[in-house]
Design goal:
- By secondary structure, the chain is mainly alpha-helical.
- It has a domain of 204 residues.
- Helix 1 crosses helix 12, helix 5 crosses helix 8 and helix 7 packs antiparallel against helix 13.
Length: 304
């Protein structure tokens, strides 16, 4: 698989996740973030386990639990809390700092050096996202802001550990995603039962929202995402994640009737330039060859 095709396929994941804010506010019952996270994770995880026909063994029992907790069990409910308590654009704007967190953790944990220009692109992308999604009428709820920050910190840690541990030989991306989705869902199951009452009513629109988040935004997106972050330089997935708030903002304009200002147009332009230039800079890093991350993930080079 060429790097360009890998990038494009990996980019589909944050594009799908960009729909989460609109689906949450327009279709799902309010006040049930743990239920939303549970229904997004556990059914998709069990389906992926059935399709992949492989379960974690040995050290991968606890590794899958750690990754599933960070990428799914912690991230999903925090994401839905942020989506409910903040305007979609503001919640997405907070996520714009994720590339910088990933670059920092990648240096500390993986000792993977990122070119200064790639770091500058990540900073520019965060600035562009802020221009896109933060407007003068934004209502900043501190609980929502903290939830958004906690969610992106959890998933940034999961991205770096996913690159560090790789994927076991012979295990496909569907089974690997299923391990994490199931582990995260099992973390959320008792918390949801104990701490969150069931909605008084779940209509057809909500059912459609849960199905969308569990299939397109769940199993499909995470299969593409986990495969991509294992084979791309550490800065690349963080920069691709900038697509999510851009999609969220565009959908807000097109579907929810939000106003699209000149400042937002400038912000989208900055994000796209940062995305393209950041990918170019990230792939020019020293050593992207025999010792590159693509050959340190437990998956032999050339095997897709």
């Amino acid at each position: 698989m060429t790097q360009l095709r890998l990038l494009l396929l990996t980019a589909l994941a944050p594009i799908a996740w960009g729909t989460t804010y609109l689906v949450t506010t327009e279709l799902l019952p309010a006040g049930h973030p743990m239920l939303a996270g549970l229904l997004r994770a556990l059914p998709a995880g069990l389906l992926a386990l059935f399709i992949g026909r492989a379960v974690p063994r040995g050290s991968w029992l606890w590794r899958s639990a750690v990754l599933g907790t960070l990428n799914i069990g912690a991230f999903f409910p925090l994401l839905f809390i942020a989506a409910e308590r903040l305007p979609g654009g503001v919640a997405a704007a907070v996520a714009g700092v994720q590339p910088l967190i990933i670059i920092g953790l990648g240096w500390m944990i993986l000792r993977e050096r990122t070119r200064p220009l790639a770091t500058a692109a990540a900073i520019a992308g965060a600035v562009g996202v802020a221009l896109v999604v933060i407007g003068p009428t934004a209502q900043l709820d501190m609980i929502g802001v903290l939830a958004a920050l906690g969610g992106i910190a959890a998933t940034a840690s999961g991205v770096v550990l996913t690159k560090r541990w790789g994927r076991p030989a012979g295990i496909g991306p569907i089974a690997y995603a299923g391990w994490q989705l199931t582990a995260g869902g099992l973390v959320l199951l008792p918390l949801t039962v104990l701490l969150e009452p069931m909605p008084a009513r779940i209509d057809l629109a909500a059912i459609g929202g849960y199905v969308w988040l569990g299939t397109v935004g769940g199993i499909a997106a995470y299969v593409l995402w986990f495969r991509g972050i294992q084979q791309l330089p550490v800065a690349a997935p963080g920069l691709l994640a900038l697509l999510s708030p851009v999609v969220a903002t565009v959908l807000g304009v097109m579907v929810a009737g939000e106003t699209f200002t000149l400042t937002q147009s400038a912000g989208i332009a900055i994000v796209l330039v940062a995305l393209v230039s950041g990918q170019a800079f990230a792939h020019q890093r020293d050593g992207l060859g025999a010792g590159s991350p693509a050959t340190r993930t437990g998956e032999p080079a050339g095997v897709r």
